[in-house]
Request: fold
Amino acid sequence: MKSFIKATLFISVFTCMASCGPSGKLADPAIIGQMKHNIVLFDPVSRIEVIGKDNLNAKSETASAEAQNLLKEKICTYDTGLGIDALHVSEDLKEAYAVQDDIIALADWYINTNGEDLSYIEIPPTIDSIIESSGRRYGMIIYSEGFSRTGGNYALEIAKTVGIGILTGYVTVPFKNSSSIYLMILDSKTDRIAYNRCTFGEYNPLSGKHVEKQFKRLFKDFRTE
Reply:
């Protein structure tokens, strides 16, 4: 999958903490009711890049693993409104890689289509089989990607921004951190994606508080508050 980060990208301050709208939003409360306590959660997948010297970005296995573990920790304690009480973590290495590849492929479809219409995509067989064997009807997958700048890189970019601002009279500020989280709920009965939503913005993918802020947007359709 191509890197989604352009190291020279600058985003205006007023766009910070933006969130993309809900695609495939469920309007029927009865369907939402069917999902409650009827979902198995798959181990989240994360891809986090670090932008450092010379404005070069590269995937960080350490940061990606940390972000993945944080997502799993928070999703197991956060009140999603769905009563998630089943987590599937593949013990078989071959199955684990297959599930991870399927989640990345589904997220890639989401990203490339902007989540506009995923209803025609069939659930991958491996994931479908796991959902059915869990005794649940639905499966939830979460994929996150983002980046973080090193302190030196961010200071340099700020200095560049100030210099450009002096010349042009217009100042844009680079994101220090960025996080996008993609949520999909899969229906094993119909073999289709029943619900999908994403959030993105200047969130730190390694901050528990920022993850919870994104979760508040992701699960707002299921919460009563």
In short: The two ends are 37 Å apart (CA to CA). The CA atoms of residues 120 and 154 lie 42 Å apart. Residues 1-24, 151-160, 162-167 have pLDDT under 50 and may be disordered.
